[in-house]
Amino acid sequence: MAGVLQLTGINKIFDTGKQHVTALENVDIDIGGGDLFCILGPSGCGKSTLLRCIAGFEHPDSGEILVDGKAVDRPGPDRVMVFQGFDQLLPWKTVLENVEYPLKVNKTAAKKERRDISMEFVSLVGLADFAHNYPHQLSGGMKQRVAIARALAMNPKVLLMDEPFASLDAQTRTALQNELISIWERFRTTIVFITHNIQEAIILGSRIAVMSKQPGTIKEIIENNLDRPRFVGYPGFDEKWKVLHALLDFNRLS
User: Fold this and answer.
1) Whole-structure pTM value
2) pLDDT in tens, 40-96
């Protein structure tokens, strides 16, 4: 049975003006509904480019991307992206207004319903007491919580996450990893999560695709059936780490 998200023969070449750089080469992935799918690879291997192609921000030079059997040729509300940077919020809008904004733009619901939906997801990420604060009044971790709430409020078929916790301190990163798992277990939203961190991939992913160095290809897709919650030292964790580490060029891994 075909998954919610299918990538077949994806190739992407960038013309720098001096040379042609192959970012992605013959990428094939089939992601099922409700999967928390991690894409793990070294810096510069094309992970973010692949995610941008899924989002519709970039167009592959060849191959096909399908969401629920429909070809992706532009951005759409069925695919919502959370970025790494803290500057993805609108600085002149409050937390609640930031979450509500895409619902308003896409005319998802009437005003009161939009506000109710937005407040539900602001509360879900633990920011009810900060609903009327502005981004400059929030920590980095809180800003990422707002970005996640805004994405989930759109009820996307696929949530795309481009290393959203990479710039956070270790304690905040762990807290947000745990929160993301709790949210995923509640809603079973299909998530594609980019990371260069092996531990993070093991903690989060139900399946883990390992990418090669540039040009980015899928070396292997690993099933991750460890019971949750997962942590370093958990039975089977070290063995999974060794398998993934062996598939990566550790000299290129941050």
Assistant:
1) 0.92
2) 998 888 999 999 999 999 999 999 999 999 999 999 999 999 998 888 999 999 999
Q: Which amino acid is at 71?
A: A
**Distance between CA atoms of residues 193 and 26, nearest Å:** 20
Structural domain including 125 reads 86-155
- Residue recorded with tokens 């998200």: 5
- What CATH number is associated with residue 13? 3.40.50.300
Q: 6, 31, 5: which is closest to 221 by C-alpha?
A: 31
CB 113 within 8 A of CB 107: no
Q: Which residues have a Cβ under 8 Å from the Cβ of 25 and sit 6 or more positions away?
A: 11, 215, 216, 217
- 3 and 108 fall within a common domain: no
In which band, very low, low, confident or very high, does the pLDDT at 253 lie, cut at 50, 70 and 90? very low
Residue 56 three-state SS = coil
CA atoms of 221 and 106, how far apart (whole Å)? 35
